[in-house]
From TrEMBL:
Designated name of the protein: Aspartokinase
Amino-acid positions noted as binding ATP in the UniProt annotation, renumbered to this chain: K7, F8, G9, G10, T173, D174, Y179, R184, K209, V210
Organism of provenance: Devosia ureilytica
Documented EC number(s): 2.7.2.4
EC top class, as a word: transferase
GO MF annotations in UniProt: aspartate kinase activity; ATP binding
């Protein structure tokens, strides 16, 4: 018997029929003797509708009342799921975030979980009940409903799993696992049986959309094993692992120690619409980098890749970095109107770049991964504009027109096309 927290996203509970299908997945786990808690999102599109109503009521609304309205979407889903489970003969009860309670700070609209009291959930699960908990929300120190921002339901599920000591947290979504790259780009992309927290965190930050970064960070911090699996699979079908053997479907996101055989490269990611900005002959005084990137941070502009080249005389430096295409014009204006915080000779830049990255914990123990990546791209005639590296990833900026060619080339080069990858 295991203790499992299962989470269903908006598309998985988009209507009552899909809620029934999700409930059948829950019933399968209950019938197998497991203790189960459920975390649900609002029905697909419902949160956007609620946000629209708030904005229609007032453009300058109270953030606390915004949260009160927007949090209602998950409450509807939780109630419906509990009703459907009860109809199936399973003891179930809905819990709003404040009833658990899921405690948060008071940053309304983007709150962070500060703690969860598992007493009531633990008792219910031990007694054979299935608690159905609203994701995406909690309660502030002042007793007000809060919402957690984008990806909040995944974060809620991981936090609940950590609080109740779950053996794993199953994230049901509209894909059947984590792939070596986007299957829409590479038809031979393979579903991974296991991937480490660190690799998943890098892939999520580099463009993979399967899991939100905050939920992976929390899972890694609390050592909560995540299982990414498809909600639209037949709940009554035989449970088959990615390698074709009987077992749990989907991709397990776990500690690196659980992965016996580590691939040099586990995945290739792509992020399009990257703009490049270069400041030429910046006077290299102490604090100049802080002034440049502080100017951008003040405008809420997120900077990604950064490369600095210092002149031979040490008096000036060139600084190149990337921002989203959508932030390019705002970034250029902020740099030009910097109020004398730093000096430079000229500014140049362009939109339409793409960041291609290779990720793998095996890179730690294998030399030459970066150089082999550069060779693979050179063989296809693809020019590299920027390079950044970390212990388990290498990223390059290239022209967007070569982005998919680069992904396909690297996927094949590192042997990820193979069925046993």
């Amino acid at each position: 018997m295991a203790r499992i927290v299962v989470k269903f996203g908006g598309t998985s509970v988009a209507n009552v029929e899909r809620i029934r299908n999700a409930a059948r997945h829950i019933k399968r786990e209950v019938d197998a003797g497991h203790e189960v808690a459920v975390v649900v999102s609002a029905m697909s599109g419902k949160t956007n509708e609620l946000v629209g109503w708030v904005n229609e009521a007032s453009k300058f609304h109270d953030a606390r009342e915004y949260d009160a309205v927007v949090a209602s979407g998950e409450q509807v889903t939780a109630g419906l799921m509990a009703i459907v489970l009860s109809e199936m003969g399973i003891q179930a009860r809905s819990f709003a975030g404040w009833q658990v309670p899921i405690n948060t700070d008071d940053a309304h609209g983007a709150a962070r979980i500060t703690g969860i009291d598992p007493t009531e959930l633990d008792k219910r699960m031990k007694d054979g009940w299935v608690p159905v908990i609203t994701g995406f929300q909690g309660i502030s120190p002042h007793g007000r409903i809060t919402t957690l921002g984008r990806g909040g339901s995944d974060t809620s599920a991981v936090a609940v799993a950590a609080a109740v000591g779950a053996d794993r947290c199953d994230i049901y979504t509209d894909v059947d696992g984590v792939y070596t790259t986007d299957p829409r780009i590479v038809a031979k992309a393979q579903r991974l049986t296991k991937i480490s927290f660190e690799e998943m965190l890098e892939m999520a930050s580099l463009g993979a959309k399967v899991l939100m970064i905050r939920s992976v960070e929390k899972a890694m911090a609390h050592k909560v094993r995540l299982l990414v699996r498809a909600s639209f699979d037949d709940p009554d079908a035989p449970q088959i692992a990615p390698d074709g053997t009987p077992g749990v479907p989907g991709t397990l996101v776990c500690d690196e120690a659980e992965i016996v055989e580590k691939q040099i490269v586990s995945g290739v990611t792509l992020a399009k619409a990257e703009a490049k900005i270069t400041l030429r002959d910046v006077k290299d005084n102490p604090g100049v980098a802080a002034a440049i990137f502080g100017t951008l941070a003040d405008k809420g502009i997120i900077v990604d890749m950064i490369v600095q080249n210092i002149a031979d005389d040490g008096a000036t430096t060139d600084i190149t970095f990337t921002v989203p295409d959508s932030e390019y014009d705002k970034a250029v204006k902020a740099l030009e109107d910097n109020g004398g915080r730093f000096e430079y000779a000229r500014l140049s830049g362009s939109k339409g770049g793409a960041k291609v990255s290779v990720v793998g914990v095996g890179m730690r123990s294998h030399a030459g991964v970066a150089s082999s990546m550069f060779k693979a791209l050179a063989d296809k005639g693809i020019n590299i504009q920027l390079i950044t590296t970390s212990e388990i990833k290498t990223s390059v900026l290239i022209d967007e027109e070569y982005a998919e060619l680069a992904v396909r080339a690297l996927h094949t080069y590192y042997g990820l096309d193979r069925q046993d990858a």
